[in-house]
Design a protein that fits this description.
With about 100 residues, the chain is of the alpha+beta class. It has one helix and four strands. The protein is elongated and about 75 Å long.
Length: about 100
């Protein structure tokens, strides 16, 4: 009987620890993550798209405060290339209107 009692206590303790971990993850996602710009929150910064230029080098379109920023990104630096207004952005081309050979 001692072995069975010890096993039940161990499984109960494990269930309590896993339940607390699940509760912590839920509370983090619900209350803290939106403030950090996570899913469901009012994101202050949104990456609209990136284009790789080489190894660890890319150009990114970033939406911040109602403006579109074109930035160059390298492993050691982020540089503002230009600033655009959202209404000047053309909608993405549909597959039917893209030129041949462009994915």
């Amino acid at each position: 009987m001692d072995l069975l009692t010890a096993f039940v206590k161990m499984v109960s303790a494990l269930a309590i620890v896993l339940g607390l971990m699940a509760l912590t993850a839920y509370l983090f996602r619900k209350y803290l993550n939106p403030k950090l710009g996570g899913a469901g929150g009012g994101m202050l910064l949104r990456v609209k798209g990136t284009i790789p230029l080489g190894v660890k080098k890319e150009i990114a379109l970033v939406e911040v405060g109602g403006k579109i920023l074109v930035v160059g990104v390298t492993p050691t630096q982020i540089s503002l290339l230009c600033e655009m207004e959202p209404e000047r952005m053309a909608p993405p081309a549909s597959p039917e209107t893209r030129p041949m050979g462009i994915p």
